[in-house]
Write a structure and sequence with these properties.
Strand content: 5-15%
Number of helices: 13
Mean pLDDT: 90
Largest sheet: 8 strands, parallel, barrel
Shape: globular
Helix content: 55-70%
Number of strands: 8
Order of helices and strands: HHHHEHEHEHEHEHEHEHEHH
Distance between the termini: 49 Å
Bound molecules: dihydroflavine-adenine dinucleotide
Strand order of the largest sheet: 1-2-3-4-5-6-7-8
Radius of gyration: 20 Å
């Protein structure tokens, strides 16, 4: 219920102006977002690389309705790929199709994606197509399997969400195609006819899909902070003789850094998803929805700020008196 409320709020972009002006919300966003500029994103990647982690950079933004806005986002990705290449950084990029104009015109979206994936290929990099709400899954997979993958091969990969009932089937299709898959649980609120309402079913689907990808997939990205599932992946890979170089763990910037570093210490590959840009509101709300403790943390801080403010007021009052 609570989670659903936060996800509902994440889909109300008009609230963004209000939230963006709030100092504490901005500070909270910096826990999950590298910063508002490309330089801030690249700076975080440099630090991650120094600590033995790789990265995937994401320019925040989705549901773009204006072709010029989609073109501007494409150009940021092109500059970003050039910058990562010039600096020799170990990072690829993650892109949302609705940011590239999927809601405006599929042909426009495809052209923008072709430019980005083409540039990534020229630099020996890689583009991951993030997966959005279930209403986009079919179109995203079609664009990937019929257009982008045939043209660019494994310079481009997709994401599958274990929350969706269709995913085990999609996993098999992607394995047959030899496509690179990032497996996640899914960050969106979905209707019960397309998604599992119970978390234990989402987790079970994750484990079943993960095992198939580890055994037969092409360099899967296991995107989760779920320590139990990560332990299962490690044990399964050992049992099936899948070496750590054949897959990678992926986690979000600002979430379970302890686990990220512990895995690197144990010889596993870890890629951190690093969002940057000024459209951070829906992303922040989804991160809050994933963990109620984050909201308690925010509420605690707001109360503390308010209390400090009150004391400051009173303190000033005394001094002035
Ligand atoms: P789960 O939600 O069960 O959490 C397991 C544990 O992880 C929690 O108990 C807590 O300790 C920790 N944790 C999880 N989220 C946290 C948070 N926000 N703050 C603090 N601790 C947290 N989704 C999608 O729909 N499309 C996509 O393309 C992507 N892409 C993507 C890339 C990468 C690299 C990651 C890691 C995740 C995504 N996601 C995504 C998001 C994903 O679907 C999911 O919402 C989150 O990863 C949370 O799910 P977990 O697998 O971590 O498990």
């Amino acid at each position: 219920m609570f989670r659903a409320g936060l996800i509902w709020l994440s889909e109300r972009p008009r609230l963004f102006g209000l939230v963006r002006r709030n100092g504490f919300a901005r500070r909270m966003a910096t826990r999950f977002v590298a910063g508002e500029t490309l330089d801030a994103g690249v700076g975080v990647v440099r630090d991650l690389n120094r600590a033995g982690l790789s990265a995937s950079l994401d320019l925040l933004g989705e549901s773009v309705r204006d072709p010029a806005e989609a073109g501007a986002a494409r150009d940021v990705y092109l500059r970003l790929l050039d910058r990562l290449h010039e600096r020799g950084l170990d990072a690829n990029v993650s892109v949302k199709l609705t940011q590239m104009g999927l809601d405006v015109d599929e042909a426009l979206c495809l052209e923008n994606m072709r430019a980005i994936v083409g540039r990534a290929g020229a630099h020996g990099s890689f583009v991951r197509i993030d997966m959005e709400q279930s209403e986009y899954v079919e179109r995203t997979l079609r664009l990937f399997t019929e257009r982008l993958h045939p043209e660019f091969g494994n310079v481009v990969g997709v994401v599958l969400q274990s929350a969706l009932r269709r995913t085990e089937r999609d996993v098999e299709d992607m394995i047959a195609l030899g496509a690179r898959v990032r497996l996640c649980k899914g960050a969106y609120k979905e209707p019960a006819d397309v998604a599992f309402p119970k978390k234990r079913d989402v987790d079970a689907c994750y484990v079943a899909s993960m095992e198939r990808l580890l055994e037969r997939g092409n360099y899967p990205g296991l995107a989760t902070h779920d320590a139990r599932i990560i332990a299962h992946a490690r044990a399964f890979a050992r049992r099936k003789d899948v070496p750590p170089a054949r897959f990678e763990f992926q986690m979000l910037h600002g979430v379970r850094r302890d686990l990220q570093h512990a895995l690197v210490g144990d010889g596993y590959r870890v890629r951190v998803y690093v969002p940057f840009g000024d459209h951070w509101y829906p992303y922040l709300m989804r991160r809050l929805a994933e963990r109620p403790a984050n909201v308690a943390f925010i509420a605690g801080n707001l109360l503390r700020e308010w209390w400090r403010g009150m004391r400051g007021e009173r303190g000033r009052g005394k001094g002035e008196g």
